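User: C-alpha cells in, sequence out, please.
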C-alpha cells in the first residue's frame, strides 16, 4: 500500500468513531497526559497567565484541546498546513467547548512570513521527524522572530543521541520513515541543539518520556 493510501485508511479509521470531522490517532491518546505534566511545569514556571501558546503541526487538534482544557490560564493557537487537519481542529474545539483556544491558522514553518507576529511559547509534537530537515531549521529561525527573551520552544518525539538510537524500536522507526520519504527520519539531538543555538536558543531541559521519546525544552537567550 502506498503512503497516501495508508494515510487515507488511517484517516477513515480515525473518523469512524465520530459523527463530525474530528480525527483521532492512537499516539495523542497515549502520550497526552505525560506531555501535559511536563507542560504544566514548563509553562507555569516560565510564562505569565494570559500568555499565548502556539502549537505548530496541531494535526487532529486532540493534543491542544486537551492541554487548553487543563491549562485555562493560557491562550492557545493551533496551526497546521493541511486542510483536513484544520477541519478536525475546529471540530475538536467545538467539542471541548473551552474558550481559550483560537481558530486554527495555516502555518508551514518553511513559508515566510509566518501568519503570526508574536507568541510566548511554541509546542511542536511529533513533527520534525516526519518533515524535511528544513522544517526543523525554519521552526527555530521563525521562532526567533516571534518569541520574546526567555520564550519557550517545547519539542516532543523520538531522537537519537550522538548518532545512536536510544532504542531498537526507534532505529526500526527511522528506517521506516526514510523508506517512505528520504527527507524524513529520527533527528539527532546534537543536530537539533546546534540549530537551536544558531538561532539564539539554549536547551534547558531534556526529559525522558515513555515509549523511548524525549521532551526537549529550549529558551530564547537573545
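Assistant: Sequence out:
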Amino acid at each position: 500500500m502506498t503512503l497516501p493510501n495508508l494515510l487515507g485508511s488511517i484517516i477513515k479509521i480515525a473518523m469512524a468513531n465520530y459523527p463530525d470531522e474530528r480525527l483521532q490517532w492512537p499516539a495523542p491518546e497515549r502520550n497526552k497526559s505525560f506531555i501535559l505534566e511536563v507542560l504544566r511545569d514548563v509553562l507555569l514556571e516560565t510564562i505569565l497567565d494570559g500568555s499565548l501558546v502556539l502549537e505548530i503541526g496541531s494535526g487532529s487538534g486532540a493534543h491542544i484541546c486537551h492541554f487548553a482544557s487543563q491549562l485555562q490560564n493560557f491562550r492557545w493557537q493551533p496551526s497546521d498546513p493541511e486542510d483536513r487537519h484544520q477541519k478536525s481542529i475546529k471540530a475538536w474545539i467545538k467539542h471541548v467547548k473551552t474558550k481559550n483556544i483560537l481558530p486554527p491558522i495555516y502555518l508551514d514553518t518553511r513559508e515566510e512570513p509566518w501568519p503570526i507576529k508574536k507568541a510566548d511559547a511554541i509546542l511542536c509534537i511529533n513533527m520534525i521527524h516526519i518533515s524535511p530537515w528544513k522544517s526543523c531549521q525554519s521552526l527555530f529561525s521563525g521562532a526567533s522572530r516571534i518569541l520574546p527573551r526567555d520564550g519557550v520552544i517545547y519539542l516532543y518525539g523520538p531522537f537519537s543521541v550522538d548518532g545512536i538510537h536510544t532504542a531498537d524500536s526507534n532505529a526500526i522507526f527511522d528506517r521506516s520513515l526514510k523508506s517512505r520519504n528520504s527527507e524524513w527520519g529520527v533527528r539527532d539531538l546534537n543536530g537539533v541543539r546546534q540549530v537551536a543555538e544558531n538561532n539564539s536558543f539554549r536547551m534547558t531541559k531534556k526529559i525522558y518520556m515513555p515509549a523511548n521519546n524525549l521532551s526537549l525544552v529550549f529558551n530564547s537567550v537573545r
